[in-house]
Predict the structure of Ring hydroxylating alpha subunit, catalytic domain protein.
Amino acid sequence: MSKINTKKNQRPKVLPFSNTILDRLRKQCEIGLPEMEFLRTSSQAKFLTNRYQCATTFLQELDLLKKRPYLVSFSDQVRNPGDFISGKFLDREWFVLRNENKNLRLYRNSCLHRGTRLIPGGKAGSINKIVCPYHSWTYDLDGDLLTKGCETIQEKLYSFPVLEKAGLIFSGFTKNVLDSLSSILEEWNVYELDSYVPFAIQSEEGTYNWKIGVEIFLESYHISTVHKNSVAPVVEKNVSILDPIGEHARILIPNRSYKNTSRPTRKDLIITYFLFPSTILILFRDHFGIIQFQPISPNRTFCLRAILIPEKPKSSRTIRFWEENREFFFRTTSEDLGLAPEIQAGILQNEWIQPSSLEPGIFHFHNSLTNALV
């Protein structure tokens, strides 16, 4: 990963971790293994593989995903009043916009009259009013119905809670869905990520269960094999510590420089935040990547990947710098995701699988998932 000195990325590189956490990681560097304390409290030692193909389980997971936060969009995509973008999560269509006071609003993409989609799917642009293409029922940017004489039991578009942090926009389908993010977002304040903008966004569908996608990014055991020519030369082999944050988690993987410094900063670590159940944020020294998995069927998944940087590049030199980081992020995560269909195909040949003690993140994920589905 490349380095460059720009005014914006000279932001604080301090870490929001206690000395106890940093010392735990230093100890694991000396041992050469991930911390296994978490495994002593894990209730599962092996997992039946029908959870990766069972239609009933899949429907239960869809219901769970509707009750948890998900990534909607990026702040830079709706920067100014009237800016909007529409999208879909599972079976729910929505559009998000910034109103005249620059506050975010996220609405169900459906007219109060006959239910017509108000904004074409996957469209972005700028508007000063929301106009239904069927009968011209018109709403202001706060969702209030402006058309007079309409017979309706509701005069305001149905809205969802919305939260903006680190250049990201989160939402969910239930009233207090975003509350679970509070402890993680408080930790993010130290990184000063709110001005970050997407440099590159990529999405694709793959033939694997969504949980397989998540699992890949919750352990470092595979790095020396899958990333032997990319990430492996940079990080300590098989070393990590995991701290659950409710259903979510933080995973710290030390770079080779970590054990040689008494005051580690962001450049000495790869910091992964797992936002349960399907979002991964990977924080590097001066940028971060985000990955979100959205189930389509038990064996098909939509994956969104993006890299966010401190500010839009203003010179050819900074463009080249971020292009190098973009290429590295998408190449290495493609090394991971390229294996996902092979994992899916092979996993179904067995009745059960047994993650090793080198993969505590897998146990945390499945413990959280099992508890949430009860």
